[in-house]
Amino acid sequence: MKIFKRILLLVLVLIIIAVVYNYPKLNILSGYSAKNTASSVFVAGRTLEFTDTTDNNFSPVNLASDEVDLENKIAISSAFGLLTRKAVYRKGLGSVLTLTEEDETASYLFPKRLQPDNVTPFPYGNAPQKDTVFGNINYDKLNTIIDTIFRKRNKSRAVVVIYKDKIIAEKYADGFHKDSKILGWSMTKSILSTVYGVLQHQNKINVTDKAPIDSWQKDERKNITIHNLLQMNSGLEWDENYDEISDATKMLFLDRDMTKMQENKPLVGKPNETWNYSSGTTNLLSGILRKQFNTHQEYLDFWYSDFIDKIGMNSMVLEADLSGNYVGSSYSWATSRDWAKFGLLYLHNGNWNGEQLFTKEWVDYVTTPTPTSNGTYGAQFWLNSNKQFEDVPKSMYFADGYQGQRVYVLPDQEMVIVRFGLSNFDENEFLKGIIGSLRK
Q1: pTM
Q2: 389 Cβ partners below 8 Å, 6+ apart?
């Protein structure tokens, strides 16, 4: 009996040690599940069952149990009953993880939005476009290539192909359609970069200026420019790891103000010589943007009034942290067609139906390879200048999000290609096939 009790005590001690050791991971696990559930249900309009069996159905997130309070628009996720996190939906700002009970009912500002244009045909409005058949497109080949990306293993949700401003192919998985909002994840970084391009065109900011961070002014970080941050080439320390407790996961699931974590990191390299992919850098840039406006309301409104709603991306929802900063690193939702409009804005060098929102020079800027990035990264956009996709033109560039969310801009082909899904895929073959559907 004494031996049995000792064994039982040892087992209990080991369980306690395991729980204590893994408690921070449980916080991240339940936090991810709560945030994703709240956004899926209250921003995208999906059901809890659909969310749990698709978006949250991967290890270890599927170990959390989820429920939603439809009346108060709250998602609750529990990791083995040991740790519970909540996320609340806020009109105009999407969903956010709470840190205190007061966060569930706190007052907040939200952006003013422009009314959608449902009269003008796509892409300059939301009305149906006039049917157009291009003689130089092999539609059978095009549709065959797109069908392959919807095979079960690819987990694709949406594909839209635009050629000369016309939708020439469009396909959705079961449960999705042209009005379904889908999370862009890190494609939001390219949205943030574009806000800088708009401000630069309006002569309200100069990205070559030193970053206006007060806490950096007494050390070497004072030499970091906004340009260095946009290129993720600041030399600042950052750990972008989603498999462990890292700077990125702590920021997204534990911070009230997500613009601060990167600010507090030391230099580990030289600015303009040390490229390091960092979601913290993008959120720091969101904080810098907020400083450009006299009021918080102006900051919230500008992204929409001077860019997003202006090009008819009326479905887009930018989600904000508890401090009211847009989470530029990760959280924006929109329909596939609206994401395609974003690509078209760049294809047309910042001109939208006759109005110049940013310049051709800005397009050149964001597509210029960052030093030490091996030609793969520009200013919050990914590049093909080193031919990582060997059968795709070097001029192609794209917004890139977790699990294969993509907006590809192909200037040489006058094309924009949008793909959404829950897994990565053979991008080279996909793009090669679509390009190959154009007859010479």
Answers
A1: 0.94
A2: 396, 427, 428, 431, 432
